[in-house]
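Supplementary Methods, section 5.1.

A reviewer requested that the exact input to the structure prediction be made available. We therefore reproduce it here, unchanged from the version used in the analyses.
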Amino acid sequence: MTPPPAFFLSGWGFGRAPLEAALKESCWQCMDLPGCGAEASAAIPAHFTAAVETLLARLPPVCALGGWSLGGMLALAAAQAAPERFCQLLLVAATPSFIQREGWIFGRPPLELQAFRERIRQEGVSLLPRFAASFCRGDAQPQTARWLLQNASPMAQAALDAGLLWLEEADLRAELARVTCPVTVIHGENDPLIPVEAARWLAGQLPRARLSLIPDKAHAPFAPDASARARFLRELPRP
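The structure derived from this sequence is encoded token-by-token as follows.
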């Protein structure tokens, strides 16, 4: 019997090219965020809920779905909205809420995200090297940020703006019990952007989750050295 297809969503800012390099030896097919990359001819969804609806419309009736960072949040939201459509979920460096909210201390301060949104409006993709360097702090491989940038297929300005709004809007804590398929949560132990406590909390709340922490890695646990990538690939679920 042919297994269902497996799709993996890119994160904010860097496109799907780094993930294609990391996942090329797996069964997971990389997808751009809604309205980005290969989907750039389509309208960019203005809000997170619209992005989830756009994603669901692009996917087959049954599949495995995963994502990195913002892509992981979209994958999680899709599985909450239509749990019957997903046989596996793969969440890499993901969180149920990127910003701090009432009862949620494992996010970024809202004012920090708002300030970053303003800098992106002013500087665009020229800000990505500093952003990559900041979220790769703590990674045992000093070339990780450079590898991401060399492999990046940067998003258009409108997509950068929309993605940051999605991060501000999304709060996925309330309906985690709706995700009934097996979930693999992979997180770098030294992630300075989304703390490992968020991954532990998320895995603890999902009914059928398995948590895999990657030592000596930060927000991009799949890159760039061969040993880290091999460890990452071993943790991937098979649909």
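The CA atoms of residues 97 and 171 lie 5 Å apart. These observations are discussed further in the main text.
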